[in-house]
Amino acid sequence: MNYTTLGTSGLKVSSLCFGAMGLGKSWNWGADRETSFKLLETFADAGGNFIDTANIYTDGESEKIIGEFLKTERDHFVIATKYTLADSRTGIKAAIEEGKGNVNGTGNNRKNMLRSLQQSLKRLKTDYIDVFYLHIWDHMTPVEEVMRGLDDLVSRGLVHYIAISDTPAWVVSRAQMLAELRGWAQFVALQVEYSLLQRTPERELIPMARELGLTVTPWAPLAGGALTGKYLHGEKGRLPDNSRRLSPEAQTIIREVIKVAESYGVPPSQVALRWTMQQDFKCIPIVGTTKVTQLEENLNALHLTLDQKHIDLLNEVSSIELGFPGSFFREEGVKQSVYGGFFEKIEHPNLPE
């Protein structure tokens, strides 16, 4: 296992993150307690120290299992959890279905932020959270309220670092600048869906992360298992037949991943994971699984290095339309007609190719 710092912080985390959404059986799928412990042990034995969960995962059971597992090794691990969505039967879900409940039990508001954190601390059996994510933007709470609230948690020592997930780039940029100007805690990581089958974050989110020094922590780097190739052979899983991850375009990409994997003599999953890890920005994929054999297979991606020709091949087959202004910058003649040849005279990693 290699290690890197998270964002612009000094926090050292493993180059793969363990995704704990499948720990527990509360959602009628996932790993039981015994298997969950084996998964965490396998990850730890490989040198992994970065674990990602959330208050909502398996209705809080994921956090409880992690808390039981880490009670004697807490300082060794970096625990990331999240707030925003309703955990268990609290919040809007209960209010709608039962005509009662805490309407402030969800959302980005400060009240729910503290309530959710306190519950996560109890379930995780810990006094602090290493990385606390805002889970998803609610398009309701003021940015100032969010950032001041998160900074207070850091000041109190309840949270060490803050991060954000599933939020528009303009919101993250505004929040980060606000925190910088006011001397508040700033985000160190950005969690988004990103894989060979989901490259749309390259339009705005990833360029923003690169510019702001945020580590990208992709969820679903294997696209729900689609990039393993198992669905091409008729194997059933949690993806419905009409999933975009199984579209004809997706299948073309998956077959190319399989060909590249065969040239290295490794499973397709390792190629798909390694592709995310060899991008030109700091990227730590989240590997979530409910089987020890699958986790071991994913961990072996650490020993693989893709040749540039294969990266270029995968980039080409999975390419997306950047839209405006990204595509405009790449149009033929733009460099000369608009910039007067300026791009030809200077090298900079953020300039359009």
From TrEMBL:
One Pfam family it belongs to: Aldo_ket_red
Molecular function terms, GO-annotated: oxidoreductase activity
Gene3D superfamilies on file: NADP-dependent oxidoreductase domain
GO cellular component term of the entry, any: cytosol
CDD domains xref list: AKR_AKR9A_9B (cd19080)
Classification via InterPro entries: AKR_Detox_Biosynth, NAD(P)_OxRdtase_dom_sf, NADP_OxRdtase_dom
Signal peptide: none
Keyword terms: Oxidoreductase
NADP-dependent oxidoreductase domain sequence ranges: 16-317
Classification via PANTHER family: NAD(P)-LINKED OXIDOREDUCTASE SUPERFAMILY PROTEIN, NADH-SPECIFIC METHYLGLYOXAL REDUCTASE-RELATED
Identification of the protein by name: Aryl-alcohol dehydrogenase-like predicted oxidoreductase
